[in-house]
Amino acid sequence: MRRIGLIIVCCIGMMAACVHKSETPTPATNNGGNNGGNNGGNSNPNPADTGICFSRDILPIFIANCAQSGCHDAASAKEGFVFTSYETITRKEFVPGNADATELYDAITEDDVSKRMPQYPNPALSGEQKALIRRWINEGAKNTTGCSTPCDSNNYLYSTAVKPMMEKYCVGCHNGTVANKGVRLDTYDGVRTAAVNGRMLDAIRHSAGVTPMPSGGAKLSDCQVQQVSKWVAAGALNN
Ligand code: HEC
After folding, report:
1. Whose CA is nearest to atom 12 of ligand 1?
2. For a surface tag, which of 7, 27, 146, 196 has the fewest beta carbons within 10 Å of its beta carbon?
3. Would the pLDDT of 154 be above 80?
4. Is the predicted pLDDT of residue 217 greater than 50, yes or no?
5. What pLDDT was estimated at residue 95?
6. Does the CB atom of residue 204 touch ligand 1 within 6 A?
7. pLDDT grade, residue 65 (50/70/90)?
8. What is the tens place of the pLDDT at every residue in 81-125?
9. What's the angle, vertex CA 25, arms to CA 21 and CA 26, rounded to 5?
10. Residue 80 CA: distances (Å) to CA of 75, 91, 156
11. What tens digit of pLDDT does each residue of 36-64 get?
């Protein structure tokens, strides 16, 4: 459907980076929306909160799926596209209010797998992620930040708290195609391994000696970190 084209050709041989998760939950659909969509703005409820919030809903998709080394981080900047911040995401071939005229939207919705972003063999973004990005652009691509995120630290089930969090923030860089540091977070076994050996908590707590995660993204909220640590303390079950 779209003219193809150009652009964003990412990482190909380079490190096989650029992997993407295939699905991402919306903040609202997981057990009361405590799946973790948040870039740290728990304390500043925003009136626009019922709508799309850039820092909470949109930026994490780009960070985890596009802004990887070899693809569209600042250093790599494939085809001149950098997807690390509001400023960079919206600065090139980007038309606020018109997703169909916006190159990055064209790329993520490209039917031809050889031209689609994220680049094959990375899975396409989920329908839900594409719809969120479309809506965000068509609503004017506002730079909303500081939005509150429902998060219940008493929910620390794998299925409703931990897994959706991994899918949203981590799986793009830790999966079967790209497993940074050998860490896979797209399967229960992988998540459990990283949890039990302590690296996961060190990474999301930004402890000394471990590269802070999510790499390139904002620190998870205290509530989100608590959800993971409680889940680990309770045995890291597949519950
Ligand atoms: C943009 C890519 C990216 C995202 C998103 C990302 N990671 Fe990573 N992760 C990496 C890279 C690269 C490394 C290797 C860092 C290094 O070599 O020090 C890594 C390493 C790790 C490690 C191993 C740390 C160690 O020193 O043993 C863990 C655990 C980890 N990540 C967990 C996570 C979690 C949990 C998330 C989501 C909250 C996440 N990552 C999101 C890129 C990413």
Report:
1. 180
2. 196
3. yes
4. yes
5. 98
6. yes
7. very high
8. 999 999 999 999 999 999 999 999 999 999 999 999 998 888 889
9. 130
10. 10, 10, 40
11. 344 333 334 444 356 899 999 999 999 99
143 is written with which tokens? 């730079």
State the distance from the centre of ligand 1 to the C-alpha of 134, rounded, in angstroms: 28
Query: Which amino acid residue places its CA nearest to atom 17 of ligand 1?
Result: 181
Please give the C-alpha separations between residue 101 and each of 20, 93, 175, in angstroms, as whole numbers. 23, 8, 32
Do the Cβ atoms of 86 and 12 come closer than 8 Å?
A: no
- Which residue from 173, 185, 187 has its CB within 8 A of the most atoms of ligand 1, so it is best to mutate? 173
The pair of three-digit structure tokens given for residue 198, joined into one six-digit string: 């302590």
Residue-level pLDDT at 26: 39
Query: Are the C-beta atoms of 99 and 139 separated by less than 8 Å?
Result: no
Average pLDDT, the chain: 83
Would you call 127 exposed, middle or buried from its count of C-beta atoms within 10 A (0-12, 13-18, 19+)?
Answer: exposed
Q: 52 CA distance to ligand 1 centroid (A)?
A: 27
CB 51 within 8 A of CB 104: no
Which tokens hold the place of 147?
Answer: 């939005």
Give the separation between CA 222 and CA 117, rounded to whole angstroms.
32
Among all chains, which residue has been given the structure tokens 């990005």?
Answer: 133
